[in-house]
Amino acid sequence: MPTPSTAAPAAHPFRSALARVNFQQYVVYVGFLAIFLFFAIVLRDSGFLSQRNLVNIVLQTAPATIMAIGLVFVLSAGEIDLSFGSIVAVSALCAAMAMAAMPAAAFPLGILAGIGAGLFIGAINGALIAWLRLPSFLVTLATMGLIAGIGRSLTQLRSIPVTDPLFTGIFGSGSLFGVPSLVIWTVVAVAIGHLVYRQTRFGAHVLATGDNARAAQVTGIKVPNIRIMVFMISGGLAGLAGLLYAGRLQAAKYTLGETDLMTVIAAVIVGGTLLNGGKGSIIGALVGSLMMGMLNNGLILMGLSVSDQMIVRGLIILVAVAISLREKSR
Amino acid sequence: MKKTTMLAALLATTLMSTIAHAQTIGPNGESATLSSEVTLSDADIAALTGKGYKAALLWHTASDFINAVAAGANDEFARAGVDVVVTTDAGFDAAKQRSDIETALAAQPNVILSLPLDPVTSAEAFREAVETGVELVFLSNLPAGYVHGTDYAAIVTDDLFQMGKQAADVLAEAIGNEGQVGYIFHDAAYYVTNQRDQAFKTTIENDYPNIEIVAEQGITDPARAEELANAMLLQNPDLDGIYVTWAEPADGVLAALRGAGNTSTKIVTLDLSEPIALDMVKGGNVAGIVADEAYELGRAMAAAGLKGLLRQDVPAFVVAPALTVTADNIAEGWQQSLHRDAPASVLGAQ
Amino acid sequence: MTTQSAPVLALNNIRKTFGGVVAIENFSLDVKAGEIVALVGDNGAGKSTLIKIISGVHAPTSGAIQIDGHEISMSSATKAREHGIEVVYQDLALADQQPVYMNLFLGRELTKGPMGLLDRKSMIEETERLVTELDVRIPSAHATIRDLSGGQRQGIAIARATHWARKLVLLDEPTAALGVAETAKVEKTIAALKSRNIGVLIISHSLDQVFRLSDRICVLRRGNQIGIRETAKTDKNEIVSMITGV
């Protein structure tokens, strides 16, 4: 290396190593551990640490974690999806109705209808945003309501039972070598999501699109295709989350997923994904989602009243988001 | 509005068949036992105290009504020395309710009080609780296929028929047992409002031959109540009274009457609400409010669960009485229904 | 190299009109391999339009573009890149949150293995080799663009163009936003491109810079080509009078 000039700082090994450490990336992990330790101590006699309860937390957060993976892709591409919660319900209802219509082929039909509905709605969202150049916030705000309405009208607000044992086993209460199926789904989805996000050209193009769409475009990235793809990923994963809910509850209902919107957004942001694109983490989203689930679980077991639970949860999310966002905009 | 939030989850499915009957009956045709018959004796209290029993309250939502029910339950549990270790709010989300149940079970409660969101989704959701042998007491709704005694201890609900009937009685009295009335009902398939509305109509038709329902108007959105009432008054300017399905749309009807300078048409509605009560004590259009005994509902739920714990017979279907509140008994009525003082504005206006 | 004889870029009688308005009239210019040509002119003289024509954003109304003596038609920026033409945009077109090495390979990431996974190791090695060669001093190939100075960013943008350009690099006001020291650094990087035997076409407002860097200077005024001078055989006064027309 030539002698450093004033114009360019030298490549000091320590400094460069330090520059590569992004402290905000670890907020979610530190926060997760801190909350876990807090509950482990405070609730040591209240069943929090029982294996059953810990497994329950993972099971309960599985659908939200799956949705969070989709949201990481969408946010990383510089867009937002508000409609995935509504897609969950419609996908679950489509799957349940398809299975009820043809019990003989219930399992494949259920998957096809559920995931297919999610992908289809995602493609419509994506096409409106990529081709008509409409802002994703407004498009998905509109489709959120639209899809919620369709979910309600599909069944006149009735719940549809899901009875196929293969379906409820694989997407709900079943297990493989003692590992509950919802845990397997979570692990598989996170692993694939992380691989695609971090290790493929597609993942890199998603980040580039969200970071600087013009730069992405002039370097030959097909930005409209990327936008459509991320909404299809979000929709498809929302569809999968719908199947998990349907399997777990052995029924589909129009309210499924609707209340997950804010939890999932909070989990993803706390997990180190930027709201305005270009940066994110699938693993962070997983830990963020588990943290939200653990928070719900622990606050309930502490015996707090419902309003106190909401206040404490809100405060903790606020602190976590404040720390992660402050670090990011140095 | 306290009741309607609860209603949003109550789909008229298994319970719809009861509408034609002249009294409130259970989801499987059980006859009703009055909540006053479900009480803990001193011996029961002694048997329960000091055992370290725990209870969980797994509500479907958070509301004024639920607060009153929970207060009744909490007080009854406290009397028996039972700790309420978990309280949750599912926000009308069936998946959240299932998670809440699982989470609550980690705290190993002996009694769970809950309003199952709907018969289909809650059947699987409560299965784990049934298997662990917890005493389950349900509010208003029953998971599909559940059997009294083995799966759950009791269902407790409002005496819905009585609420509608008493609304008819108080309106009839206010207009001198004759005249023309309007009927604003909840136009959606919700068990609780449907039963109450139908009971009002049945009572007017059967018990008051000189009163005629001349105008019927369904309503789904309380925000549109005022314009619907205006239209009704335009077509029937001589209405003596109007029944409004619950308190929130009654606000709109009241606004329509005031706007028309109408001081003669009487209103009756269901569920306690401050603006409605205020109009009533000031001698306005509101003649009476029929309320449920939410606090008593909670007390009876807790008592039923604890009796189950003591292996005593618990009636399958328990109803808490309805309560007619007029300007004369507003203070006591508020106490009896919600177990707290009426709002200062209402008491001050008397 | 086969580019020694024919110019890497030859523009013959380029004319461009927007509606009825003539933006470029009868423009002809050759850029040879290893040569730096400066394009100067006042605001609105047509420099940006010319850059857009060469980079494939606008098609000329008439006239021919040749690369290595072969006539080509460029319908898009992608097409221009396929012909070996790279542009350093005034806004640099860098993805700020991504590391340096991902920016160098933006849209053209290296992959390995049957699953086509990103080959980060190769991209990082290549980046380090390139920034050393062009003497762009950055803390590391892992550094995030956002954390770099203006000069370092400009260096990365130039390095990226250099890496991918087989024929020609277009530089649009490369030092407009930089201080004195950083400008000197970037000029050194640009001068280093000569040794890579590619043609460079640079747009600059700074005549000092033009005289320091270029081999030839082409002057535009109101869409017309006023003339081309060899830098060594002209002076600032001549160029200024050509630019202003007085």
From TrEMBL, chain A:
The keyword Cytoplasm does not apply. GO terms for cellular component: plasma membrane. Pfam families: BPD_transp_2. The keyword Transmembrane helix applies. The chain crosses the membrane at residues 23-42, 54-76, 82-102, 109-131, 137-154, 166-192, 228-247, 259-278, 298-325. Keywords: Cell membrane, Membrane, Transmembrane, Transmembrane helix. Its main location: membrane. It is found in: Cell membrane. It is a multi-pass membrane protein. GO terms for molecular function: transmembrane transporter activity. This is ABC transporter permease. It comes from Devosia ureilytica. The lineage of its organism: Bacteria, Pseudomonadati, Pseudomonadota, Alphaproteobacteria, Hyphomicrobiales.
From TrEMBL, chain B:
It is found in: Cell envelope. The keyword Signal applies. GO terms for molecular function: carbohydrate binding. InterPro entries: Peripla_BP_I (IPR028082), SBP_2_dom (IPR025997). Its main location: other. The keyword Repressor does not apply. Residues 1-22 form the signal peptide. PANTHER family: D-ALLOSE-BINDING PERIPLASMIC PROTEIN-RELATED. This is Substrate-binding domain-containing protein. It comes from Devosia ureilytica. The lineage of its organism: Bacteria, Pseudomonadati, Pseudomonadota, Alphaproteobacteria, Hyphomicrobiales.
From TrEMBL, chain C:
InterPro entries: AAA+_ATPase, ABC_carbohydrate_import_ATPase, ABC_transporter-like_ATP-bd, P-loop_NTPase. GO terms for molecular function: ATP binding; ATP hydrolysis activity. It comes from Devosia ureilytica. The keyword Nucleotide-binding applies. CDD domains: ABC_Carb_Monos_I. This is ATP-binding cassette domain-containing protein. Residues 9-245 form the ABC transporter domain. Keywords: ATP-binding, Nucleotide-binding. It comes from the Bacteria. Gene3D superfamilies: P-loop containing nucleotide triphosphate hydrolases.
